[in-house]
Amino acid sequence: MTNKISWAHPGREEVHIQWGLEKDQLTDVSMKVIGSLPFLRYSQEIKKTLTGPLENLPIPSGSTSFALIWREVILRMQNKWKAPIPDGDLCHCRKVSGEKVARAIVYGAHSLDELRLRTSANTGCGTCLNDAQSIIDYYLVKK
Ligand code: FES
Q: Which terminus of the chain has a lower count of CB atoms within 10 Å, N or C?
């Protein structure tokens, strides 16, 4: 059985990866990566680690956008990605989706103030503050 997932931020980075599993070992890993040359180089280094047991893949550390993208991809491959991102709007006052908030975090909004500046989320009634902070904390592995 072939497994596949994609991570994409159109116009910036994209990762499309597929793999097989044989007795929990990765087989036939192939990937298509789109992005800047540094991202392609980073992804080539990650690809070298995509071998052996799926459960034992190293998870990239750090808070660069490249690390956050690949951390999400690998955790999703392992079915361990549990980011508290709502399907619809995270911020109802400003109609900002959870997905938009998540992408802003990946690309550097690592505090509530930065998130407010980049997305306008949490600039109304304030009700979404804890939800926004939870997503930041999840991406930056603060919990
Ligand atoms: S719901 Fe986000 S500021 Fe009101």
A: N
Going residue by residue through the chain, which has 143 residues, state the pLDDT in tens, using 9 for 90 and above: 799 999 999 899 999 999 999 998 999 999 999 999 999 999 999 999 999 999 999 999 999 999 999 999 999 999 999 999 999 999 999 999 999 999 999 999 999 999 999 999 999 999 999 999 999 999 998 75
**CA 50 – CA 17 distance, rounded (Å):** 11
Residue 20's domain is classified under what CATH number?
3.90.1010.10
For ligand 1, pick from 91, 95, 101 the residue to mutate: most ligand atoms within 8 Å of CB. Answer: 91
d(CA 84, CA 138): 8
83 occurs within a structural domain: no
Q: Is the CB of 86 under 6 A from ligand 1?
A: no
Domain holding 128, by residue range, is 89-139
- Residue from 119, 128, 133 to probe ligand 1 pocket by mutation (most atoms less than 8 Å from CB): 128
Boundary (domain end) residue, out of 53, 77, 101: 77
